[in-house]
Amino acid sequence: xxxxxxxxxxxxxxxxxxxxxxxxxxxxxxxxxxxxxxxxxxxxxxxxxxxxxxxxxxxxxxxxxxxxxxxxxxxxxxxxxxxxxxxxxxxxxxxxxxxxxxxxxxxxxxxxxxxxxxxxxxxxxxxxxxxxxxxxxxxxxxxxxxxxxxxxxxxxxxxxxxxxxxxxxxxxxxxxxxxxxxxxxxxxxxxxxxxxxxxxxxxxxxxxxxxxxxxxxxxxxxxxxxxxxxxxxxxxxxxxxxxxxxxxxxxxxxxxxxxxxxxxxxxxxxxxxxxxxxxxxxxxxxxxxxxxxxxxxxxxxxxxxxxxxxxxxxxxxxxxxxxxxxxxxxxxxxxxxxxxxxxxxxxxxxxxxxxxxxxxxxxxxxxxxxxxxxxxxxxxxxxxxxxxxxxxxxxxxxxxxxxxxxxxxxxxxxxxxxxxxxxxxxxxxxxxxxxxxxxxxxxxxxxxxxxxxxxxxxxxxxxxxxxxxxxxxxxxxxxxxxxxxx
Length: 486
Hints:
This protein is α/β, with parallel strands linked by helices.
């Protein structure tokens, strides 16, 4: 008999490649997958009968704001309970590192927590903190453009000056040297909107030839979305680096139905340069309360408000009526605040979700007291609502969007596939019952149908609760050649 640590028998394996499911046993030795086959001659100290449930690679959340949560709340239950085994942090231009707060906490960096959680002036210190906290999930990190601007500029409502760009480049290079995945931008936010394209190019040029990636929260996601896509593409193409467009959408009621032209442009750009996107499976976005997004034709739910905390969870329209003021004035009074914007059409969301270049990212905000349900429900919602109930894509394809595809896009070595020699990040789930249960009214609810989750070979979630075994790691950037054949 051949020995292993964990033997999962009678599983339906969906391996993350997009290929058909197959029946197999999977053996785990240490932190790696030892074998995938019919393993009659294997014995294990821990045996699991999958009873025909699906065994897939652990899901990779490509778009998170868990930067400080992986340290302050290392159990990471909102993600672990969905089958997520790896989170990519530092998106939308905001990251927990490298950060030095000298002029307060600029919006939207406040999405990552209160000022006191920003304790990492270098990327290396952030990596050390992750390793010390031992989170339940793996962590790979981008460096935020807005974070760099905060560190080296006295005002964020202008373009950076040459010496400021030089300082930002030095800090970005140091971060890349310590394993950062790449650079993220958030040009839609006022803290970065004044940045020129040339400023971004000066930073993004450091990524060339390193295996690093540029992720872009576009300068405009509504009426100017096509021009914003072209700007991001021009930066990536000029620097010869991969591009991921963050939470691709057609925001604002006047832009509903434009996903066809958006995806047509994406296809054209992807034929010339490596480019992809991520998307969350909801027709509502969530961020800080931005007056530029206040539109009385769409519903906005207030998630928190510093001057009026009692208004959290209530629609902006009702607050405005009670105060007998226009919604714009009510929003001003509520700031700083957070909001959920019902700004997209379901048809556009479906079109973008099923595009071949789309990965799944939750964009959840763990520090919101009343978070968007995507924080707890994103991945089961894709598997249940969109895959099983609406047939948007086949189950192996849905799993591929969450595993093999992001592992390849972000060059995560040895992750994203159920394959011998790969790390044992695995999720066992029931394809007939898996579903999200988090709602706008009750957003902090774990999914159903997720049976077990292993992170680096360790059983970390089982029977609807965390096991307390935290085996997550910091995942440094690797070159595409080292990421394995995927």
